[in-house]
## 1
Amino acid sequence: MSNNRWIKQLGYLLFLANMLCLSSLAVSDELETTLVIRGEGESFSEVLNGMTQDLEGELSFDILVVGGDTTVKEVSNRIKKTSPKAIVLMGNKAINLYQKYQSLDPGQDFPPSILLVALYIDQHVKNIKNSTGILYEIPAVTALINLRKVIDGDIKRVGVIHREWMKDYINTNIQYCQTEDIELIPAEVSNDNDTESTEKSIKKHLKKFKKTDIDALWVINDSQLLTPELFSKAWLPSLKKMNIPVVVGVESLLSSRLNFGTFAVVPDHYSLGVQGASILADTMEAGWVLKNIHIDPAISVKKIINLNISKNKKIHIIEKSLDNIDSVIQQ
Amino acid sequence: MISSLITKISQKVLHTAFARLRLLAITCFLCGFILVNSAQAEKMYVFVPTSLAPESIESSLQSSCPGINFQVFDRFRTFVNQVNQDKPDSVLTLLPTLAQNFGYDTVLTGDIEGTAEEPYVLVTLHEKTDINQLTDKTIGAVDILGRKSMKQYISGLLQTKVFVKRASKTEDLLMLLIYGSADAVFMSENNFHKMKAKSEANLIAVPTKIRVGVVGTAFRGDVADKTNILECITKLPKKVNSLLGIKAWRKV
């Protein structure tokens, strides 16, 4: 009798263990894993939110947050542990670490990877096998269409200063702008990092822009051209004499204290995550094969305007149009 | 003399203290009253994709209906998640979104020229699209149903299998065309005119026979008293209705 009870209990235990195994198998069958390697910071979290909420119940996400001390070994161990069907890389640190990981054994098959939240992703994609991504830089045309909605005046001719190596990027932007009947006028600065010659070039180009009556200036996110030294010696003194909107790609350049940018258009991080989720879902539906390697720019943006600087520069703003603006800086 | 002065001073101090206490009691009562009322104010969650910032729609609705507590969302997913979590008394969103099983009953629909539907067009850049050759094309559309449902919904409406590129705002549809990310975008004729007015691009709209539902107002199944919300929504000013893409409201 007691033997029977013991066997019965063992039977229950085995049944439970079996159920547990089956349920874990069912979960892993249903939800395949994507490894997200991302940097620290709010923007990354927001992108991740958009992505995971959009794919809720369709994929499981394993997150590895990388910092300055994260090693390639840690990335490698995590990939081995997770065996992800796809990898999402957010930020330069994540991209660089993964690129190093791939270079350790370049002959192996790598899962598809999607690169997000880093500048010049089209360049990174060339160095990472089986990858695609979304451009983080917002094209001039998006910023200028939005600027045109808020200012009382024409936006037909827009100047941009860029380094030599960005020529392809600028040409793409010229084409986009042509669609909207906007002439993007490029002015090239040498690739070398000599501050003095860069300063001279920026001053020369801005002087020329002033003479040729451009309607706005588009400033691209290039840390080499936006150093504190170049700000104080070239950009700010030259722009003092120009009462035109200055369109920037980072909110910090809109600060009234800096007195530089008038209008900023930045990626909407949540929507960027949703855009990334679509690529991930398409890849999943294609049996984890990257279907479309066309690299789109971030589609959805946030618009910010500094009314204080606009007023000082006598740029007329259509008040009603501020309803379309996500954030208005008044002071 | 001194004792009477002390008495007078102490009386004054006491009087002031009582006055302060009275003021504090009244303030507490008022705060409580406001809190209780705001907690009891009927909640309406709104999701109507436009090019306007959600705060702007929210303030228009709030000033027209101060007795209702509005919360406006600019994305389908956050709207749905929040509705499922908070179960507000009512929701105001597009009829196709309401058609998903939310547990909300549609009581009002928007009205344009006597109908609750509006014509939709397919918009392309430079070249006219052939509406009979849409199979496997990439069509941009504002996300009103989520990823999986959008694909089925748009393919169903266009009666062929298409790939769908979702946008969160109507203004993003223009960018899908300029960047070459979509072969065409699917949008209401009304929104196309608004987009065309703000763009210099060579946009070409091809009419379709498809008509899609405008906005509607729906109530949670167990809400018995709908009077306040119904009265206020049906009397929204023309300007606010126009923001919602309709001319008036009518009962279902």
Note: Chain A touches chain B at residues 53-55, 58, 139, 141-142, 145, 148-149, 176, 179-182, 268, 270-271, 274, 277-278, 281-282, 294, 296-297, 299-300, 323-326 (CB under 8 Å).
## 2
Amino acid sequence: MVSTTSDRTSRAADVRIPSVLVVLVTRDGARWLRDCLQSLSAQTHPRLGVIAVDNGSTDGSRDILERALGGSRVISLADETGLAGAVRAVTELPAAHEADYLLILHDDTTLAPDAVARLVDAAEGIEGVERVGVVGPKVVDWGHPRILRDVGRSTDRFGHPYTPLQDGEMDHGQYDRVLEVLFVSSCAMLVSRAAWQRTGLPDERFESHHEDLDFCWRARVAGFRVLMTPLAQASHRDASARGERRERERHRSSRYFAERAALASMLKNYGVLSLLWLLPLYAVLGVGRFALLTVSRRFEDAFELLAAWGWNLAHFPGTIRRRIRAQSVRAVPDRKVRRFMESAALRLPRWFEVAGRILAEQRGLDAEEEAYPLRARATSLARTHPALVAWALAVVVAALAYRRLNAPGVIEGGVLGAFPPKPSGFFGELVSAVRTTGLGGSQAGSPALAALGAVSAASLGNAALAQKVCLGLLPPAAGLLMYRSLVRQTGLRIAAVVGAACYALSGIVLWAFSQGRIDLLVALAVLPSALDRLDVAFGPNPPWKPWRFAVGAGVAVAIAVAFFPGMLPALGVMVVVHLVASRGRGRGLALTALSSVIGAILVFPIVPDLVSGGGRSLTSHVGQADFGLLARLSMGSAPGSWAVAWFLPASAVISFGLVGRDQWGRGYRAVLAAVAGLFLAWASAAGHLPDALTNAPGYVALAAASEAAIVAYGLAAVVSMGRQAFGYRQIAAAALTGLLAGGLGLQALEAAQGDWEIGPNRLAPAWPIVASGTPGEFRVLWLGRASGLPFPAPGGDPQGILEAGSDSLRYSITDREGATALDIGRGSYGGGYAYTERVLTELVSGATRNAGTLLAPLGVRFIVAATGDLQDSTVAELDAQLDLNLVPAGGLVIFRNAAALPPAASIPSQDYLSAARRTDLLSAASLPPAQAAPLREVPGGWAGTSEGGVALLAYQHTSGWRMSAGGGESPSFQAFGWATGFPLPASGDFQITYSLQWIRTVEAIVLGLLWLAALWITRKPVSA
Amino acid sequence: MKRRGRAQPLAAIVVAAAVAAGGVYLQRVVGPAPAAAAPPGTAPSGAWFCPFGGGSEWEVVLHVANPGADPVLVRVRSFGERKPAPAESYSVEPQSELVVPVAAEDRGGAGVVEYFGGWVAAGWVAHAGGDEGGVAAEPCLPKAGRRWLVPDGTTETKLHDSYVVVMNPFAVDAVLTVTLFTEQRRPIRTEAWSNFVLPAERSVAFHLNQKALGERTVSAEVAVSVGRVAAASLGVSVQGGIRSAVGHLGSPPGLVILPGGGDQGRTDLVVVNPGAEKAEIGALLHGRDAQQAVGSLEGSTQGPESATTYPVATEGPSTIELRAGPAGFGVAAVRRTFGVRSDEGASAGSVEPAPAWVVLPAVAGDPYNPRLFLANPGADPVDVTLSLLPSEVGAAEPAPIVVTVPAGRTISVPEEFLDAQPTAAVLAVAAGGTFVPVAASYSLGREGFASYAVALGVPIPQAWVPV
């Protein structure tokens, strides 16, 4: 907005007084029309005429108009033509062409008695300000004249309207100067004859929505000025926005109309050169906005966005015609128009604007309270806007903590699974009927792959960027969702902020981030929401909409389970706690059951895996039976796992002693959950629980969330403590404050150092021996002691434990790239893993000297362990194998399997075929070295040329595999008791494909529809 | 309310104390769940590495004996300096022996016996041909490794040629360095034998005379930096025929038991100390009737990185029990024994006695004179049951016999027991206690002169000891 001079010079009295024709646009405004007419009748401007255009009112407005103005001054339109239609109708009258100015006026607007005169004065009477085309008044609220409604407006570069006013901003005279603006509201808009005749009339396609923006913009392009004069004042009731006016089938949101007008105005009013750079930017930002709306479940808003774009597409020819008309009268370049626009960035980080306002307010306060010390002012700011302060600090910590992850290229290290290079990798695995990772089989991909695929697609298919997006957003998301839960529970933002910070900086979150555990980080982010919903379900007040609530809870559970199935036992613990310690048991149990069923439906393809295989999909073998480590909510060595991490359990203990009456129940349940989580985590790590319940990270996550909640409950009591007699509460509160300040500060410092396990180039120097030393596909068997630790990168987490006394092993089988993100949410079990354990048993027992041959059907070419991670006896046994050869390597112990077979191979040996049909290991071990040929990968399977023998797929057997050769088709057999084999004909080409893909395709479609339905049911309300 | 207000801090303290106490209890008393022991393997397999050497017109046979109750599948491969021959598979019937001739045209000839479904013992008997004569026998090696000590070697005269046969039966090349130790000279490391690349599935013979001619004692250390190998010595003497002794894998031991017998009374004890410090050594001689210290080694020390040949006078069956000290120090040794016609035999001995052995024959053909000696270095007499594992299935075989080996003695098994099946392996199982057997036989002979060969028994792993 540009301020112009306010020096006004009265012209000589003999100057002709300009004539003004008021175009009063009415529709069903009988309630306020009289006020409007009265204000017109009171105008001091001597040459004023009024023509009313009634847009088919049915409430008697027309009668009022005719009584007030006479029938000849009222134009009745049968249809709703909007403001543009009304103006067009008036301009068809000779009077309009004779009037110097048209004053467009809404029926819910009243004018101050001198308003018209002041408007005319501004249009003609300001020295040095020529070619004024449009003038608007200062608009105040109808009922509260101290509240400003309009002082002229602007847009961003993309035509989105922007007002400098805040909601409910009071009129202190802060805008009391004539402002040159981009546009003024059409509620009261003075338009010069030259302007409307040269520019054209308002665009009637906009149906009374934002036509003022487009019209004024065009006037600007045509070289006319647009002014707002505060000397003229109007009161606007804004009856439509208040819902006081009968609406006629309005079924679009304000977002739709704003977006529609913005794009259309851009297309019409910008020059070609401006459009060349603005339209691509608009497209990118538009896609981003659409994605954000979709992700935040504002589906209707997203749809409105699409609809607005669709409208512009449908009306493109009309837009072009109007563009030609507008550009034909262009008198000024775009850069002069853009002076009256705001920065494009202003709409993106909206909260920055809020922050700026708050800081400005604070500066104002500072000016008033200069005597206040800095500390007091900081405390005041933190108390007044805790979330803002926390976010600001979080941004600083995150900027430091993530700095080493910002290098180009993919992130490696920890247990971070490799992302497929393209988003289609995720989607392909999701809809694939056979598992392409690990030892294959028919295990379905987790629905989590769809989310990861979407992130990858949103990252423009850049795997490195997708990794960083996931990792960068998840810890703040965990804090944010914890904050939202705690705000609902405590009603105190500062307590919720501290609780959320405790959670986000807890040992488990930092450990999960350090190791790149995207799956656990998602579960940690969702966990507070899931626990909050349990709190509601079992709480004293039933949810408002039980079905919507249940679907929402089901979605939360489904997300957690899809990424990290091991969160299920932890949530089960919380349900048990509620059953023991809550009052609404019946309702809570019913809602929980319903939510569980919905959650199960939303992940139905992986439900069979969750309930079969002895619960191994729920199992995590990570975790050390170190009570001290677990008690400080950490799972191992990582930033934030040091002694300072005790701050959270210690704070929780103190807070529990402070919890107020209103939060006593919640605090009690949180303590039960925290204690249960801690002990179960230890029992998991110590191997005392069955597979289905063994998941130490899940239990520690529950303990962390519960302890953070206890802290918030305790702080809520402290905040509301008020001035009481000095006692233990004050001492405890002081201790708690110090503990939290120190703990959070030091944890934040630790995080800010950014010494994570993940980062660029974090793989062992010896790993290229495995990854690049051998062409073709192969698998890697990772071994280590049963220590509860993950494997060195990129081995990932152990998939199983082989119990063998002191020689017990943890193991994992990966592809040549190591752990993959495609396995997120998916356990590893089945005949192939059982076979692997049998082979490992032979190895550690010292029975075999042909472990390589035994591992050959698994496609294992390398055995890898961290240096020192294997018992000497195990290394000796490996070294004693005839077919395993130690490869010199630093940092890793690598054995190369001389007998390895490709994961898909044809072996021209009848001996091999005979052995493959058996299940005993001796037959496999005594096989001579095989001359295998790898099969060619073709869409949906493999192909090769037969020389007899057997085609062996190192993928767990499922009945859907078929081999076609020589015009016939033959089924597979279960090779070595678990793999997939086909007896090969003596000669000829053959092809192996999976015949039951259609089942998974249907499943994927149904799954997609179910998620759409669930998200639709739980969508956020549409924006006003 | 007030009551609860007061109880709250107490409850917090109680919870904290209970968690702490529970944690301490779990950590210190309960502890991690014990892991179940691994079940026994169901697909036993193993391999024997036989670096027997060879030469023009040599005949080498591998003896594979199965003392168990089930047939065992074996796969035999032989190596040399050229591409290996295809593997041959056989089944060794229970309680019997298989004799497999193998190619041995190269000086560095070697073979591998893989076995599946049970346990077998394997050894070789080599009969020199062409311009060379004599018989050598040794058990094959159960493991390949990265450091071998091969004590036996002499290059004192041009009449003696000493070799170290190194085999690499694996699928990757091995890189190794051969260091020679003598009595007086500093360790000999040559460029040609440093970082020597032995290709996969090949074997080679290092001719010690090329690097250390004129030494009474030349011992070798084979250090492997990449891969694994197996090594043995091969001695070829114009006067004394041929002899073999397998190498010692790993660090030198503190105790070596070296039984022998059937010789003409002259024994050389070759001792090598590859360490950087001198080792104190001493030896006991367990004879047929008495036990005494070996005088020539009394109070001796073996200098660092050196090898020495100690002559020991023996009579009849005898066992040298060599000890090295102090604790942590060790030496490798070979007992080189001379037959009645100066044909030599050599044995690397055993580092410990065992309760059950398979003794493979050391005879190469008619005429036979198989001998078997049993040493008991322990403090109690041992009853040993001997039974034959014949190579001809269904052949008449004598009933098992039981012999008692007095404590600290070495005895000879009755010859008539062995004469019934001269080429049969012998299963020797002690009823209680341990012992060490050795076959020391005369057979064939060159131009009418009998050839002497010594082969230590093969201890049977505990899991495979016949009940």
Note: Chain B touches chain A through 49 residues (CB under 8 Å).
## 3
Amino acid sequence: MSVPSWWADLLAASDALATTDRAQVQDWNSATESIRTQKLRNDPETAEEELPAVDDPPLTVRLGALGAAFATSKNMTNAERVRVLAVVEKVLDSGDDAERTAVVTGFLEPVLNYSDKFDLHALWGFVGPLTQHQCVELQTGWGIDVPDWMAAATQ
Amino acid sequence: MCAMSVKGCAEVAGQVAVGATMAALFGLWSAGTANARPVDGPVSQPAPTGSGTPAGRTDAQRVAEPKSSNEEVHSAKVYAAKAQQNAAKSSDKDDGEQKAKSTDKKGDDSKQSKGSGGRSSGELESSKEEKQSTKAQQNAAKSSDDKLSDDQLRRKALSTQQKEKTQASAKGVGMTVKPTSATQFSPYTPKISDAVGTKLERLDRSQKLSNTAGGGGVAVSDQLGEARRTAVKPDREKKAAEPPGGTGAGLLSSPILSQQGGDASTKKANTGSGSTGWQSPLAKEIRDAYDGTAPTSGTQPKPLTCVVAVAGPSCLPTIDFGGSSGRTSAPELKTSDGRSPSAGSILERHTDSPAPAASPKPVVGKLQPPVQPEPRTQVQQNSEGEGGKKGKGEGGKKGEGEGGEKGKGTTPGKGNGKPAPKPKENPEPADSAATGKDTRSARGAGSSDPERNPKPGDPCKSPKEINPCKKAAGKKSGADAAKPDSENVHMSENSPAYDSSAPGAVESRAPELARAASNRALFEQYRNILRREMTKPYVVDSQLRGWMDTMWRPGAKIGNGSTAAAARFEKMTGQQVGGVWHSGKARGFLTRLEKWIADPRNAEATPGDRAAVENVIRDLRDALEGN
């Protein structure tokens, strides 16, 4: 999956997320380079097809790192978080299924997973309705109790 | 107090009189022997404490004397008169002065020893008598000459001899009748106890006592000083003259007391030349209990040998009393009352136990692991029953005295030298143990282990490798229940029973682990199930931890809450989890984790992290494949 158009908007919303994404991509590329080097060292005649392609990391993985940084980063302000949530709401509203699935599974799920470290209740009022609905559905789908403040907002 | 002071004076006077008499006798005998240096006479020396003389008695004993003060005053007068006469006859001047001084001193001491109680009229009289006796002694001292100084020396020698005799008898009496010693050893029963541990304990105690009494009984006498003080009484002296273990000494039936009750000569006879406690009567008794033979000249015990305990091999200190090489009799432990020692159920001697006629290799002096040279089947156990003798220890370690090769026992048995019984085609089932025909009790040549030697009719008391109780608890059912126990024998890797093609071998069964390994697919399925149910793995790497946190949803009820579980659920049900499909996320993390595990930089990661990543990769793959 190629990089979506809204990716730049997402990284522009928060420097912390941008830093995290850069680190992810760098690590991914470094891993790719290490593997290629090792394979070529072991077998210099290895075909290019057999070598790992130089590409971008999976979008869900990148979104997952951003979601973890969104919940745990201390360098991230609430204003940045509100801006990020606005981009997420936009993707859920105007993105395709793959993009929406990637945002929900890649970003919203990690944010909810860090509920013990990050209290979304404080920002729940800045969360878009689609995002709120998706959060409640994730909680319900996994069989996790939905908090009252979350359930009340969706009713 | 008065009576006591008078008695003290009387004693002094009496001693002076006796000394004067003896001096006169010696003067006749050794007339002309002069120039002897005058020494302190026995009269002037206070009686040593605890020597058994009346002077050594305590004040309380003196007070307890039934004599009245008048009688004592009278006796004091008589003693004083005699002393005056004798002293006037035979005492020299200087010696008399010394006597007078010592007498004065004695009188002062006696006065002081009487304490500060009120003085009675009897005490005043006794003081008068004391003055009179002192005057008489002073007169006698004035009239004595220098010749008798030698006589006094001889007198002292005689008194010393008498004291020594008295002390020697007091020691014997003290050891015999000391009430504290009875209290001390009252828990001890004179019989040999049942347990070997008790024997050893007693042996140690006897050693300690013999060592303590080794110095001519002085140490023992010190311990029994109270009895020694009462030893001067004539009746006690008679008892002291009695041999240890004699009349009226119930405690002397104890070997320990017999040993310590003896004097130096008796002790020497017991312990032998230069021996320690090993040659004591107790040691001899224990030794005889072990092997029935008395050592000829064994002065030092042989090194401790190892035994095999019930719960496994251990190196317990067992006494080897020597003479084991040539012994052929079974060293059965028996108590003095003929009962089998309870230690036989605890320890099984495998050291120098004389092997039975069937035992080819007696194990001597080293720890032997419980080696099972051959698997033992029911048939074999039946065939080897004659090889060992019931009891304990005769057969050495288990496995000896086997009756057949294995299984059907077609080869002549080592144990009895006879051919094994005709092999049975169908070995007896496990229930045969209850019929009493099971000769497993003789297995291991009569091990006393109750687990090895189950009682007839008690299938639960079976050997370690055969546990019908467990099988009866549920594992044995249906067709397995009809299988004989010979097939249920646990077989080790080096067990020849693996060679099922061997002639006469019982059809071997693979161990359970081998059976499990034979179905790898089932095992993998089992591992997959476990992997699906695994919780979020703990990883050290922070990047990995972030990924795991992203993939695992705490508190989820879909599988284990992982992305793989969601993907699996979606594959199985065709329904989304949380309104979205999770296969894309699973695929993305699978790709990332595969790259991480392929990254050579992560080759140095902790094994736990790598294992966790590998398991998650497997789980994701399985989930994406619909497994």
Note: The helical segments of chain A are 7-13, 15-42, 59-72, 78-94, 97-113, 129-141, 148-154.
